[in-house]
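Reopening this one. Same input as before:
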Amino acid sequence: MSLKEELADIDAKIEKLKAKKREIYKASLDAPEEEKVCGDFWAESLSEPSPFPRMKFPIEVTGINWVERDKRYRECQLVAVRPAGKKKTYLGIYVGDLPLGAMVSYHTDSGVLSIDESHHNPAIVVPDLGRVVMGCESWWGRIKNNEEFKDITDKDIDSVWYVKMLKALTGETDKKEKTQEEE
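Same output, byte for byte:
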C-alpha cells in the first residue's frame, strides 16, 4: 500500500469514528440522566456534522496574492510621544501607519493564498529610544515646532474621554477622589 493510500485509509477510518461519535451524542439525548455523556445542548450540537468543514492537509498552493492597500505613509511630522509605562515625553517623528498583523485566507477552489495587512497603527520613530513606538503603546500628539513640545502628563492622559470611561467603569475615579478627600 502506498503512503497516499495508507493516508486515505486512515482518513476513512477517522470519518467512520466521527460518525460513531455523532451517534453516541444523539443517543445521549434519550439516555437516562446517569448515562448522558454531556448536557443536552452540547449533545444536540455535537450529534450533527460540523457546518465548517476542516481543510485537508497537505494543501497545494498554486499562487500567493498580496492584497494591495493604499499606502498609509504620510509626510513625516514631529510629535511628542510618551510610551506607556514611562514618565518621560520624547520627541518623535510620525512616519505613517504600519500594519500590526496580517490576515491569510486559502481559496480551496483555486489553491491561492491571499495575504492582507491588518490592524494599521501610527508608527513613530523615537531617536532617543532607538526604536519605533506604535501609537497603540503610547500617548502622542503632533507638534509644529520645538516650541510646542511639552511633557505629556498624567493629567493629560486622565482627561482623555476613554480613560475617563474606563476609570468610571472600574471605579478607579471614586478611589482617587476618596484618597484625595482623606488627605
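So the earlier flakiness isn't reproducible anymore. For the record, The chain has three domains: 3-46, 63-152, 154-183.
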